[in-house]
Amino acid sequence: MKNKTGIPILYYHSIANHECETEWSFLSINIELFKKQITYLSKKGYYACDWNELYSHIQGEKRLPQKTVMFHFDDGFLDNWSVVFPI
Q1: What backbone phi and psi angles, to 5 degrees, belong to 39?
Q2: Which of 45, 47, 50, 62 has a CA positioned 20 to 30 A from the CA of residue 56?
Q3: How far, CA to CA in Å, does 87 sit from each of 7, 43, 50, 53?
Q4: How many Cβ atoms are within 10 Å of 16's Cβ, its own excluded?
């Protein structure tokens, strides 16, 4: 997803490894795949902004680097904190 500034917003629901499939498994991506995505962006020099920075950028109050992305985690799954935060 991109906003009107062209900054990609990487949208996730859950980052988890499921031992067995459930009706909600499709909302998750594998932890190792997520780590690879973060490593790739880091090696390519991307900056991760937060909602406040994006808003300030849209308002013309703050200029963000050319290589900026934003991460959005929907639904508030516990793994957003327990898995993503340490990464």
Answers
A1: -60, -45
A2: 45
A3: 22, 15, 16, 21
A4: 20
- Number of other CB atoms surrounding residue 27 within 10 Å: 14
For 14, residues 6+ apart whose C-beta sits below 8 A from its C-beta are 24, 27, 28, 29, 75, 77, 79, 80
Tens of pLDDT along the chain (87 residues) come to 555 668 999 999 988 888 778 887 788 899 999 999 999 999 999 999 999 999 999 999 999 999 999 999 887 788 888 988 888
Which residue is associated with the tokens 């013309």? 60
Residues making up the chain, counted from first to last: 87
Neighbour count for residue 12 (Cβ, 10 Å) = 19
